[in-house]
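Researcher: Please predict.
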Amino acid sequence: MGPTAERRPGEGGAQNDARGDGNVTATVVHALGIARDLAAAGIPVFVAYPDPDKPGEYKPRKGWQNTTANPAYVGAWKPGLALCAVMGHGLDLVDIDPRNGGDLAALDGIMPDVLGAAESPSGGTHHFVRSMGVGTRDDLLPGIDVKAGAPDGQGRGFAFIAPTVRKSKVTGQPAAYRWTKPPDLARLRDDDPGGAQLAALVRHARGSRKQPSGSAAPFQQPASGWDRHAGPVKEGGHHGALVSYAGWMRKQGIPLRPQAETLMRARLADLVPGAAAIYTEDEALAELHDIYSRYEAGDPGEDAPAPGPGTLLSRLLPGGCILDVPALPGAIWGAGSDILWAAGQSLIIAGPDGVGKTTLAANLVQARLGLTKSVLGMPVTPGNKNILVLLMDRPQQAMAALARLFTEHDRDLLDERLRIWRGPPPQDLARNTTMLAQLCALADADTCMIDSLKDAALKLTEDEAGSGWNQGRQYAIEAGTELVELHHPRKGQDGNRKPSKLDDLYGSRWISAGAGSVVSLWGQAGDPVVELAHLKPAAETVGPWQVGIDAVTGTVSIAHGIDLIEQIRGRGANGITAAVAAKLLYGSEAPAATEKARRRLDRKVADGLLVRQNGHRGGNHGSDPASWFLAAITEPFTEQSRPRQAITPTQEPGQTRDGGDTNPPSRDWPAGTIGAEANE
C-alpha cells in the first residue's frame, strides 16, 4: 500500500496497529482508540508517512484536506508513521509553544472551553476546542498557533495526535505526543459562545472577516479576462491594478486560499518600481482580503454591501467633513477650553517613578466607570463601554494602587466593565501597530490605560519605534478607544532638573508629537505633594498645580495652586498685569507666557469675574500695560457665580458707580473646588 493511499474501511484493527513492532504498549492502544473515537464523532483522521526529504518529519498525502471521517482509517497506522486529525470538523487546535514565548495566559478571557489536551514532544501543549468557523492562523500571538478550518474548506489545518512520535526540539530525542485530557466528545455539539472573541482575533489576524456561507464558488480556470490583468504596471497605476485584479478574482469566484492569494503574489511581480515605495506582499494581500470581505462571489452589482468599518474606502471622507469639526475638542477630562484630556486625542501622564502617575490614572479610570464625576476638580466624561488597563510595569504593585479606590461593593461593576492585562504585551506594540487596537477590541473597551510606554514598546529612543507607537495609538483611537499613556522623563541631568518642555520626555519626539495633551508630574518618590505642569495643551494650558497624593485612599486633590482671583483681590486698586500673572503662574515673563496669562485673565472677564482696563502706549509718562480688577459685587463669589455689579474701564479701579469698595472681604477658596483658580 503506497504512501498516498488510506487503508480501506474495515481493514486492519488493533492487532494490525502493532504490525512490524511487537512492543506496542497499552498507551499506544489507548491512543489509537481515542483516534477511532474522533473519527466516529465526525473528525477526519489520516496517516502521514515519513518525508524522504526531511528526515524525522512527516509528509501528509496530497489532498489530506478532503479526508472523510472513518474510524477504519486508523487501522493504517503502524509504528514509524504519524496520525493526524483534520481541524475544522468539530474541533480546532490552540497550539502553545513556550519555546517561542507561548503562554496560555495571553488568551485569558477569550479562550473557549477546552474539550481535550495533549503534550507535544517539544514541551508544548495542545488545547482542543470546539470549531470556531475560522481558518488556520499561525503566529496568532508569539508562540501561539491556531489550527482550524472555515466551513467552506478554506484555511484547513491538521494536528498531530498520539501515538505519533517526533524528534523533540528540546532534547533532540524521539518522543510521543501524549493525551493529558482525552477529548470529551459528548460535549462536541454543545453550544459554546465562549469562542467568539478568539474567533474574532483570528479573523482580524488573518486580514479578513469571515466569508458568508456559500459565497465561495468552486474554482475553475476562467476562460477569458486574464489578459486584462497581465503585463507590467507603471508607477501611478499600482493601487488601481491590484484592487481591480482582486475585484475581478472575487467576481470569478476564485477561492481566497490558496488560489487568489497565489495569483495576487504573482500579479505583485508585475509592478514596475518607481520613485515611490512599491507595495509589499502584506499590503497587496490586505487589498485582496478587503475586497473578499466586502463582496460575495460573483458580480457585486448595485446591491453590493457598503464598505464596513476598517476598510480602505470607509476612510475616504467627503471634504465637507472638515466643517463639522468643532473649534474646541470635546473633553474627556476638563470643560470649555480647560482640557487635560481631549476626546479622540491621547493623554500622556509623564513623571519619574513613585510620583503618582498610576494613582492619577486610576482616578481617571474610576471616573470613566461613572463612580466619581471629577478628578482634581475637573469634570470627567464617563465611558459607555469597558475599560482596558494594560499593567505591564510592576503589575502587582499597580493592581494594589487601583484597589485603593474600590471596595467589595464595586466587584460586580469591576467584573463587568474593567479588564486587566498583566505583564508584557503579546507583541511589541510599536512593531505590530494594530495589536493595541486588537486588544482594545477584544476587551470591548472605549478607554485604555497604558502603564507604561517603556513596557509597551522597545527602543523608544529610535524614531522608527516612536512613529510605530504613534501609528498604533492612532489605529486604536480611530477604532473608538480613548487612551491615557503613562510615560517617563529623560534621565535627570544638571541636578535632576524637572521637565519644562516636550523634549524632556524620554524617547523619540514622535511619542509626544502624536499625543493631544501631555501632563508632567514632578517630585520625589513617595512625596505627598507633587507638581503638575501642562507641557502640551489640547486647548488652553491648565495649571500649574500642587497635587496632593493620599497614599492610603489613593485619591488626588489640589494641595495648592496659584489663585488669580485671590491674587487680584489682595492687590486691591492696583489690579494685576498679564506679565505679573505670567510670573505667578508659569515662573516667567516671556512673551509666550505673558500671552497665555492674558488669555486666562480675559476668560475671567468673559465670565463676569474680572474687568479689564486697557493700557496705552507712549506719551509723556511712557507706556502702561493693561490691568485686570475684580468685578464689583455685594458679596463674595465663586467662579460659578456671577457678580451683580461690574465697574467699567472709565471708573476708578477699586470703586463702584456709587463710590463703594469693589474689593469684598478676603475669602479662602477651598482647595480643589471650582472656586479656586487652581481648578481652571
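Model: The mean pLDDT is 79.
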